[in-house]
């Protein structure tokens, strides 16, 4: 059922935030367990909210959530790109919020900001692949996956199709037999033919066995076809990989130059095969049936690549609410949410990221405001950590846990908000706590859900490995108990996850 008003729509996003308030008052959870640990089956006792919890919940303001989501996703913030101007404006905005709530700065040099150094690469619009009369465009016809060991690459050479590129005595197969690949632009299929032994094929077609071997033969460039699947088509992969790519400045560089590697769409492959004596679809059908299809395509192609490389600094935003208990305040519960999105693309596209994750950042901001006005304050200290660089591999969280501004051994738990807007599909009745089965936070989570009249919901898509894919996992790797919270309506959770 659609919400009856915008206010109702926004309020639904508060349920996990309200739940998180209860977790801050709980006893210290047991240490994080390995991922193989099994879920608790113990039924929680009948749980009720304490007066302090009710008071804190009543202070969570819908207006704060609305304001923060609207501001972070505005044009002014330019998509909050990591180490981009809009991202730093967003960091300062959140820092000003923390200051207004009276949180103590827990960043660098008495500020709320912890500097994180990054390096970024972005494929430029003048990049193209030309074959015959067809000029193929980056981002729609093909993409270049990182890493980039060069800033420019120009290759014009004959094109050789090598089928799956597999050489294996066990499979009695040699897709490279009789082919001269030195300096050539090589075209290779991903996947495997029907009826082949899967284990033997996996061994023979590993990246080390294929790609590294091809580079060792001195190829000029590599074009890979058959990328994507029904669930994750080429267009989805291209949308992600054609964006600016970011990593920590401290990550090591590959010490040698690699030939350019391009991933092609099926439509681009048809253009590449045009006039070669067989269509790509015909060739693919033969290859899938086990036929040997390697051959010279009888044409040249040109790869023209330009990559922009730069370095910059982004910021984590960190504020502290000191606990009220003289002893327990030495421990802290850390609330996290990433505020970054994908910033501005090379073509000027802005990615506002309202659901992922301005909403999560607004939740921890609203919690910070509520707890700062609650008396008595929580017994433990509470850290509010808005991190950058999540979209590129949990980079800001990784930096904080390896350069903590609070002793990591005294972090009792991490509560992460990165629900990508799942709460907006209807009145929240179900709550997910990714990671609840791996630590003593599980029973605490179950009791908190019961106290709010909601339903604990198991992970509806375990094959997606959501537990590994957000900032809380950097805490988990350090042994800190952690949860990522998400809420949704009653009914089948697969509809809203």
Secondary structure tally, helices: 14
Unreliable spans are: 1-13, 34-45
The description of the largest β-sheet is: 17 strands, mixed
Radius of gyration from the alpha-carbon trace, in angstroms: 26 Å
What does this protein structure show overall?
This protein is an alpha/beta fold. It has helices spanning 6-11, 15-23, 51-58, 62-72, 85-100, 198-204, 207-216, 234-241, 266-273, 280-288, 354-372, 395-402, 441-451, 472-477, and strands spanning 104-105, 113-123, 128-131, 134-137, 142-143, 152-161, 167-168, 173-174, 185-189, 221-225, 245-248, 261-264, 295-321, 332-338, 343-344, 350-351, 381-387, 411-417, 430-434, 455-456, 482-488. The protein has a 17-stranded mixed sheet that branches. A two-stranded antiparallel ribbon has the order 7-8. Helix 2 (15-23) packs across helix 11 and helix 4 packs across helix 11 (354-372).
Task: List its salient traits.
17-stranded mixed beta sheet; 497 residues; single chain; alpha/beta; 21 strands; 14 helices
